[in-house]
């Protein structure tokens, strides 16, 4: 039996129509390839990605900031109620092998930082740009489409 692949999908609770569409398609593509989708379990990008994955029969895990599993979006199959607030942003990327960031606000930025700090690849669709000492930091791998994001994610996982 092949080993499971774990991909975190991160993004804002309040997202644009384009970001929601991209997240939904990323979720679908991940499920089609047998990946477990890890996310923060709430709305916006997280819910759209989970909906796409669930519609394709995928497994979704939501690592929630609150202590109530019922806070999870309806497409989270395994809700993990942490009760630690947004400190859970450290657990989302650490639970995955690669991170796909779609859009995002400051919570997404913190998850990107935790991922990069732990050596995890971050693939971005219209997400944050980083710089250090006034120079571009190319740690986030930019892509244009959900298909490209999932393909790159699997390239990292499978070596």
Short structural description:
With 159 residues, this protein is α/β, with parallel strands linked by helices.
Question: How many beta-strand runs?
Answer: 9
Major sheet: 7 strands, parallel
**What's the number of helices?**
5
Helix and strand sequence: EHEHEEHEHEEEEH
Using the 3D structure, state the CATH architecture: 3-Layer(aba) Sandwich
CATH first level: which class? Alpha Beta
Strand order of the biggest β-sheet: 4-3-2-1-5-6-9
Report the β-strand fraction as a percent range: 25-35%
What is the general shape? globular
Low-confidence stretches: none
State the helicity in percent bands: 25-40%
Can you tell me the number of structural domains?
A: 1
Helix and strand content put the structural class at alpha/beta
End-to-end separation in angstroms reads: 18 Å
- Overall mean pLDDT: 97
């Amino acid at each position: 039996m092949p080993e499971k692949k774990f991909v975190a999908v991160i993004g804002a609770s309040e997202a644009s129509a384009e970001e929601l569409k991209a997240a939904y398609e990323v979720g679908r593509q991940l499920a089609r390839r047998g990946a477990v989708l890890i996310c923060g379990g709430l709305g916006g990008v997280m819910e759209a990605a989970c909906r796409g994955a669930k519609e394709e029969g995928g497994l979704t895990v939501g690592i929630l900031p609150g202590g109530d599993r019922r806070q999870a979006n309806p497409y989270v199959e395994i809700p993990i109620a942490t009760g630690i607030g947004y400190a859970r942003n450290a657990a989302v990327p650490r639970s995955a092998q690669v991170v796909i960031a779609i859009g995002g606000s400051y919570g997404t930025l913190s998850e990107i930082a935790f991922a990069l700090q732990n050596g995890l690849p971050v693939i971005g669709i219209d997400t944050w740009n980083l710089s250090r000492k006034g120079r571009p930091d190319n740690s986030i791998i930019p892509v244009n489409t959900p298909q490209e994001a999932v393909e790159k994610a699997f390239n990292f996982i499978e070596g």
